[in-house]
Amino acid sequence: MQIAPLSLFVSATxxxxxxxxxxxxxxxxxxxxxxEKQAELDNYTQxxxxxxxxxxxxxxxxxxxxQRSAELDxxxxxxxxxxxxxxxxxxxxxxxxxxAAQSRYQQAVAEHKQNKEDxxxxxxxxxxxxxxxxxxxxxxxxxxxxxAGLNDQLSTARIERLRNEFSREGTLEVDHxxxxxxxxxxxxxxxxxxxxxxxxxxxxxxxxxxxNLTEQRVVEPKRHLAGAQVQVVxxxxxxxxxxxxxxxxxxxxxxxxxxxxxxxxxxxxNLDNRYCSEYGSPLALGYQASYPTTYSDEQLTFSNELSxxxxxxxxxxxxxxxxxxxxxxxxxxxxxxVELTLRSNVYDDxxxxxxxxxxxxxxxxNLPAGMHDIEVRKLGYEPYKANLNLRRARTLNAxxxxxxxxxxxxxxxxxxxxxxxxVAVAQPQPVTVVNPDRIINETVIIPAGSFKMGDLTGNxxxxxxxxxxxxxxxxxxxxxxxxxxxxxxxxxxSSQYVTEAEKGKGCAHxxxxxxxxxxxxxxxxxxxxxxxxxxxxxxSYEDAKAYANWLSGDQGMQYRLPNEVxxxxxxxxxxxxxxxxGNEIGRNQANCGxxxxxxxxxxxxxxxxxxxxxxxxxxxxxxxxxxxQKRASQEDVTVRGGAxxxxxxxxxxxxxxxxxxxxxxxxxxxxxxxxx
Length: 676
Description:
Blueprint: E1 13-14, H1 17-92, H2 99-166, E2 169-179, H3 186-211, H4 216-219, E3 229-242, E4 247-259, H5 265-268, E5 294-296, H6 324-327, E6 337-344, E7 350-353, E8 356-357, E9 363-368, E10 370-377, E11 381-382, E12 384-390, E13 394-398, E14 401-402, E15 443-446, E16 449-453, E17 468-472, E18 476-479, H7 485-495, E19 507-511, E20 514-518, H8 541-555, E21 559-560, H9 564-572, E22 625-627, E23 637-640, E24 656-659, E25 668-669, E26 673-674
Parallel strand pairs: 6-13, 22-25
Antiparallel strand pairs: 1-2, 2-4, 3-4, 3-5, 6-9, 7-8, 7-10, 10-12, 11-14, 15-18, 16-17, 18-26, 19-20, 21-26, 22-23, 23-24
Helix pairs in contact: 1-2
Domain Sulfatase-modifying factor enzyme-like: 441-674
Coiled coil: 34-82
Organism: Pseudoalteromonas rubra
């Protein structure tokens, strides 16, 4: 028998629209603020360019004044010689006119004096101009960090909005008509009509969810990856009737709630998975009926046919207000789905089920009952594999074991199940130290080699370009960790050195997103609680150099700050990615702002809390910025590596921030290299 045409009347109001509006308002507000800050940054960039051009002009004028000084000095000496000569001749010939010689000498002296005054004034003008440049640069760094932070906030807000849009709740009224089969009872026809109406309602509901997504154009092409589901919260028959032509019509009122696999939200918006790691499991079933109440997007392919095994039951006509759960006999779905919860002992892993990626743990997913191949992977760990016969809801705890030779992906020490073993060929060799009892910071050998320096991925700042090939002909030794508070205290106690911050000038820190000078801050008290194994901060470039000079004398070996080439080469660890472990910061792999560590946006971490890179260096990503050695021609000094309160995009290996040598902050420290 042919199925009669279906009629579907839907009147639905998706709830949580106010929440969605709030989410959109949040996203819009962040985008607006980001646009404003970007405009400010562009303006400051133009102002800085003008100031740099003006500094070049002032420096050129100073060079001319200094060149003229030599010429005027020569003229003054020649005028003096001429006047002395005419004075000697005046002894023999008192009638000689010496006025011209006197005037020449007087004019030469006056011009030489004026030129010296002009040089002094020019130097003062350059110094004042340079202070303006330094302030503009600090403001630019602040804006760059603010914009990067806003980008992180925007990504989080977009994820939250999408999650809330998928989780909307609404009620649909469905009018549905089918033609009863000759072989089925009225009860069976009634049951089939109600089930098909319910499936049609859920299909329409999930279509409505996707159609009303704010970023529908971005998400729709990946709809098959969303893992979207619809949960039936409640449903009842508003009215139903049989007609004389063998048709059954039913009017259903169905309240439903959307749901989505939270671990896939980031991939739907093309965002880093770290923005999704904080979300828990999908919503639990709130309504249990004798037929499926949760429908995945993939399941909702509408069919009018019931299984041939439908039982034949004779029932009376139901009243219009009857509840479906009371009406329908148990009817297990043809492809029953079972909930599987997956957890693991590491962060930022990836789960594969039957060869398909499902994101990272913690993961809650509905799978068809039966056999499934489960695999959990993470770079640097042996994969966890299991063949699972899934018959009922269960939780699987995957324990990944770290590979002995792997140090590619930094992992907090609390997650490491066994120590990393050094491989003789690939790993850095510990350096034999003359006085091991007097050295705290272990050093490693950085091998000679070549690399591409700068922005290799196109995501960097202007001062990271162009990319250049650099060759390091000789190996060198570098401290594996940033200089600690305890190490710096030993220097202070031994030398009685007083840092620039302690000379009554204080130290900078971030307050409400702006760098602020605090006169009471110094390396001893940087504005947060610290221990001896924290990196020393609130030290200027000159303070770091003073420590290097002292350590050189103390150890009888030459220590200094690394230059930028040495720093980036060592920090890259023979990689070409943004970070030693890849191009995404991940979560809890380093201490930087919004990086997911327990110290992020709070304070530096004790040194060495995350795994070393391939050369054995710790904390080259985040924790504190590190001073580098400036060239003789440089006025400014560059810091590298990012910090605990700076955005992940500024912790990339090629990021460069130029600062004045006397600048110091509670997010800037250093490490040293040793001449071999």
